[in-house]
C-alpha cells in the first residue's frame, strides 16, 4: 500500500501512456482504412484477405482505448517502479526487433529457412544481452545459426508438405 507522499514522489507516466494509447488508436484507424481497399472475397478457411487487418486493427483499437481509460482514471495506479532486471534492456529489445524486421524484409529474398535462422541468431543475442551475458563470439554465432536452421527446416517442411501452405524458398523447387 502506498502512501500519498510516496505516490507523489514517483515519476508521472501519464503523458507517455496517453501517447501510446493515442498511437495505438491511430495505427488501428490506418489499418482499418487500408483494409477497406482489400477485396473481401472469401479465400482460405472462409475468410478474405482483409480479415487479418480488421482483427489486428480491432485489437489495437481496444488496447488504445484501455490505455487511454487507464490514464483518465489514474494511470499506473498499482505499479511500482521496476528495479534490476525487471527494468528491461533496450539493447535486447533492439536485437530482437532487428531480427523480426530483417526476417520480415528478407523472407522473400533469401527464403524462409535462412531468414528465420537470422531472426533466431539476433533474438538469442538479445536474450543473452538481457541477462547480462556476453552476446557471443563467431563460434557461438555459427552454433546459433545452425540451431536456427535446425528449427526452421522442419517447420518449413511441415508447412509446405504436410499443410500445403506455400512458404518462400530460395530455389526454384522451393525446398530450401
Cα(first) to Cα(last) distance is 57 Å
> Helix-strand pattern, N to C?
HHHHHH
Count all strands and give the number.
Answer: 0
> Could you estimate the helical fraction of the residues in percent?
55-70%
Major β-sheet profile: none
The overall pLDDT average reads 78
Strand content is: under 5%
Radius of gyration: 22 Å
| Helix/strand structural class | mainly alpha
Number of helices: 6
Shape: flat
Q: Segments where pLDDT lies below 50 for 5+ residues? A: 1-10
Describe the structure.
The protein is mainly alpha-helical and 176 residues long. Helix content is 66%, strand content 0%. The chain has helices spanning 4-9, 14-36, 51-72, 90-110, 112-130, 138-162. It is flat.
List the helices and strands and how they pair.
Elements: H1 4-9, H2 14-36, H3 51-72, H4 90-110, H5 112-130, H6 138-162
Helix pairs in contact: 2-3, 4-5, 5-6
Q: What would the keywords be for this entry?
A:
0% strand, 6 helices, 176 residues, mainly alpha, flat
Overview in brief:
With 176 residues, the chain is mainly alpha-helical.
Amino acid at each position: 500500500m502506498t502512501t500519498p507522499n510516496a505516490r507523489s514522489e514517483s515519476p508521472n507516466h501519464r503523458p507517455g501512456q496517453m501517447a501510446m494509447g493515442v498511437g495505438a488508436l491511430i495505427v488501428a484507424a490506418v489499418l482499418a482504412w487500408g483494409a477497406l481497399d482489400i477485396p473481401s472475397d472469401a479465400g482460405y478457411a472462409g475468410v478474405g484477405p482483409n480479415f487479418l487487418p480488421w482483427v489486428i486493427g480491432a485489437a489495437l483499437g481496444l488496447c488504445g482505448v484501455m490505455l487511454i481509460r487507464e490514464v483518465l482514471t489514474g494511470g499506473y495506479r498499482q505499479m511500482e517502479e521496476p528495479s534490476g532486471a525487471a527494468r528491461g534492456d533496450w539493447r535486447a529489445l533492439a536485437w530482437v526487433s532487428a531480427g523480426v524486421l530483417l526476417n520480415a524484409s528478407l523472407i522473400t529474398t533469401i527464403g524462409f529457412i535462412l531468414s528465420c535462422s537470422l531472426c533466431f541468431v539476433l533474438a538469442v543475442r538479445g536474450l543473452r544481452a538481457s541477462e547480462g551475458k556476453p552476446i557471443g563470439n563467431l563460434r557461438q554465432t555459427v552454433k546459433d545459426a545452425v540451431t536456427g536452421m535446425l528449427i526452421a527446416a522442419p517447420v518449413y517442411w511441415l508447412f509446405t508438405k504436410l499443410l500445403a501452405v506455400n512458404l518462400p524458398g530460395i530455389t526454384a523447387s522451393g525446398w530450401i
